[in-house]
Amino acid sequence: MKIILTLMMSTMLVVLTTACNSTDKTTSDAPNTTEKTGNAPTVSETVSAQDDAGSKVRKDQLNSDIRAREQRNNTTGGDTARSDKDLSSEVRSKLEANIPKSNLTVTAKEGAVVISGTVQKQDQLTKIEPLAKEIKGVQTVNVAAKIASAVPDKAK
User: Fold this and answer.
1) d(CA 134, CA 52)
2) pLDDT surpassing 80 at residue 118
3) Considering the domain boundaries, does residue 112 fall inside one?
4) 14 in a domain, yes or no?
5) pLDDT at 54 over 80
């Protein structure tokens, strides 16, 4: 019995450790890290990756997912600490639903959210922080994103 309990506990520990080390992205082309690497995608890559993200159906799906997660969190205690994975996923969904054609990466750690990548316009850039703070459990937001036109195009 002790061996089974030890095995189950170690398996849970491995699964939880793996789940905590993830980064959520608004597109598959978004950077894999929130560090400033200088390897931002070109404007044309960003635009082509975001065709369906601006549709009303997709926006409704994302907002519905956010509401469902918040309802689930309220059911389990409401004010309990949220996992980093839940925070980053919800912030990513919120940004994807409200900032079309963005190419953003979201990472969360203990309520601190870091957002990097590119957006199309200045007004989208200024909307990032307020949108992220709408998600319950987000304590601080560091926006390291840039406007796509300000990023040099590597194809030239």
Assistant:
1) 24
2) yes
3) yes
4) no
5) no
Q: Hey, what long-range contacts does 76-81 have (CB within 8 A, 24 or more apart)?
A: 81/111, 81/137
DSSP at 154: T
- pLDDT higher at 43 or 63: 63
Query: What is the domain range of residue 132?
Result: 23-150
What is residue 156's predicted lDDT score, i.e. its pLDDT? 46
DSSP reduced 3-state for 1:
coil
Spatial contact of 149 and 43, defined as CB atoms under 8 Å apart: yes
Token pair, residue 50, equals: 């975001």
For residue 106, name the pLDDT band (cuts at 50, 70, 90): very high
What region does 104 belong to: left with phi over 0, alpha with psi -120 to 50, or beta?
Answer: beta
Q: How far apart are CA 27 and CA 42, in angstroms?
A: 14
Verdict on whether the full-model pTM lies above 0.90: no
Instruction: Give dist(CA 38, CA 118) in Å, integer.
Output: 11
Helix (H) or strand (E) holding 146: strand 140-147
In a domain, 39, yes or no: yes
What's the 3-state SS for 37-48?
CCCCCCHHHHHH
Vertex 12: Cα angle to 66 and 75 (nearest 5): 35
